[in-house]
Each structure stands twice: as structure tokens, then as C-alpha cells.
Amino acid sequence: MGSGLRPRAWSARLRRMILEPQSLSASAMYRFMIGIVVPRPIAFVSTVGNGGAFNVAPFSYFNAITNRPPLIGISITNRAGEPKDTLRNVQETGDFVVNAVNESLLERVVHASGEWGKDVDEFQLTGLTPVKSDLVRSPRVGESPLAMYCRSTSRGVAPFTSMEPRFRMSGERTSSRPSA
User: Fold this and answer.
1) pLDDT at residue 102 greater than cutoff 60
2) pTM of the full structure
């Protein structure tokens, strides 16, 4: 430690704090959560609605839950009291694709995160390529090096929804089991 403090002396200077989540506004609790759960991976989620309109959007409340069965969790909040396009599409179709984000995709992922209307196709807006998925109706992002084909295990609006992914690596055959 650069301050020259020994671990005991350093820890003695820390104050203990008990946080009551109910006492914080939703935005303050959000800032707290994104500050303590780091690093946060990004789920770049692509969906299609019943009408055939594509959607792709990033979500930072995303993580692996368990490997047997393989489950992931994504938290999708409402916007102005209404479900976001991604959540509405998952509720309609029951499936979606989580696309890996690499450095070459960053600028387009940020652009897709804008407040776009439900009639806006973020694939077209960002110049990304929707590619027919092998196992689900929702398209995958052609430029992404990995896609997880997912089916929702919860059809309702829930604070926590788990998904069962199947994996596709660029240039490889789709499998429900990644090789060991």
C-alpha cells in the first residue's frame, strides 16, 4: 500500500456501513450496485418481435448463474413505465441471443444503447449484420465472435429471469455443450 499503512492500520481507518436499500432512491441504488459489482460484462442482446422487427441492445446487469444447467441472468428494466423492446420481444417469442462484445464492436454497441423507438431496427442503425440463428428465432450479430442462443425460463416480468444458453463460436458448428 502506497500510504505506508500496514493492513491492520489501514482497515482500522475504514468505517463500517450498513446500507438499507429501501432508504435509497432507485437511481442511488443503481449507482451503488454498478460500483460494487465489477467488472460488469455486457450482454449485447438481439431479439425479434412477433411482427418481425429486429432489436439489439446492450445490458450491463448480466452474469453467469450456474454451469449445470448453464444459466445466465439479465436484468432489463422498464423505460417510462413500459417494457423495453428487448423485454417485450422476449416475452412475445421466448427467445433471444446474447452476443459477445469485442473491441471492434464497442462504438456500435454504444450507439445501439440510445433511446430508440420500437420501430427502429438497431441492426440497420448501427450497420451490424443480423444473421439467422441456428436454434432460435432471434437473429445473432454476424460481427460477434460468440453467440449464446437463449430461451427464457420465465415468461413474465420478474426481477430476476434466468436463461438457458446454447453456444455458437464464429466459424464453428452450434452445440449445446461447449467443448471441455
Assistant:
1) yes
2) 0.73
